[in-house]
From TrEMBL:
GO BP field: cell wall organization; teichoic acid biosynthetic process
InterPro entries noted in UniProt: TagA_TarA, TonB_box_CS, WecG_TagA_CpsF
Family to which this protein belongs: Belongs to the glycosyltransferase 26 family. TagA/TarA subfamily.
Name of this protein: N-acetylglucosaminyldiphosphoundecaprenol N-acetyl-beta-D-mannosaminyltransferase
Entry's transmembrane regions: none
Keyword match Transcription regulation: no
EC number(s) recorded for this UniProt protein: 2.4.1.187
Database matches in PROSITE patterns: TONB_DEPENDENT_REC_1
Reaction(s) catalysed (UniProt annotation): UDP-N-acetyl-alpha-D-mannosamine + N-acetyl-alpha-D-glucosaminyl-di-trans,octa-cis-undecaprenyl diphosphate = N-acetyl-beta-D-mannosaminyl-(1->4)-N-acetyl-alpha-D-glucosaminyl di-trans,octa-cis-undecaprenyl diphosphate + UDP + H(+)
Length: 244
């Protein structure tokens, strides 16, 4: 776990408390030094899942950095009396690193999402980031990750972005990260957004901390997954009372 940044624990998940800019500088230096780095961008759903899954909690404990992705984490930290600086989302971090990687002529390996989505991701990345070397690219519907890991091991990319959703992406990273000393980061539904298959919430929703509400409106099937949010807030409040 990170030693560079102060940590804020939300229901036993240790988040780094810093800015997006400071975090990026640190990650870039790890990539330049070819250091094996595992980043988890966690939201309340992940925190609640870890509570019931000791194996996943263990994976989180072994990550190098856990960032607060989602306003619910900042809210939770504030309730616990340990407010955090800002949200560090997987999507924004990935975009910043793709841009930086393009400037620095780095290489990237992209795995995840449906075949038609990853094809569009490839087009977007080659057009927008022409100096970024795509070491490999694969959709997220594979039976066995071992051959992909073997290719990663062969090509030794600077950054690996895995977009197959949690908990699978973190489990795979934990299992295979030793095969390449680069950045490994799970980015959930980011490829759907990058390719334009899913729209990110307009700025208004983002600025008013209503991104979750926009997602619910555009994908009502997410309601079941979002039901965890009230339970999360209740658990945080209970924890705040007990720790007083
Ligand atoms: N996905 C995948 N392989 C699977 C299951 C899911 O590649 O076996 C992809 C799915 O197509 C989507 C992403 O993983 O692009 C998960 O997106 P979601 O919005 O659920 O992720 P979140 O950011 O909410 O964790």
């Amino acid at each position: 776990m990170s030693k560079e940044f102060p940590l804020v624990s939300v229901l036993n998940v240790p988040f780094i408390n810093t800015t997006q800019a400071a975090f990026l500088t640190t990650i870039e230096s790890h990539i330049n030094n070819r250091e094996n780095t595992f980043v988890v961008t966690a939201n309340p759903e992940i925190v609640m899942y870890a509570r019931n899954n000791p194996n996943y909690q263990q994976i989180l404990n072994n990550a190098d950095y856990i960032t607060p992705d989602g306003i619910g984490i900042l809210k939770g930290a504030a309730i616990l009396g340990t407010p955090m600086a800002e949200r560090i989302t997987g999507y924004d971090t990935m975009l910043d690193l793709l841009k930086w990687g393009n400037d620095q002529h780095k290489s990237v390996y992209l795995i995840g999402a449906k075949p038609e989505v990853i094809t569009d991701v490839k087009n977007v990345v080659t057009t927008r980031y022409p100096n970024l070397n795509i070491a490999g690219i694969h959709d997220g519907y594979f039976d066995d990750f071992a051959p992909i890991a073997q290719d990663i091991s062969k090509t030794q990319p600077d950054m690996v972005f895995l977009a197959v959703g949690f908990p699978k992406q973190e489990q795979l990273i934990a299992d295979y990260r030793h095969q390449n000393n680069g950045l490994w980061m799970g980015v959930g539904g980011s490829f759907d957004v990058l390719s334009g298959h899913t729209k990110r919430a307009p700025k208004f929703f983002q600025n008013h901390h209503l991104e979750w509400f926009y997602r619910l409106l555009s994908e009502p099937t997410r309601l079941k997954r979002m039901m965890v949010l009230p339970r999360y807030l209740k658990t945080v409040k209970q924890s705040a009372r007990t720790n007083k």
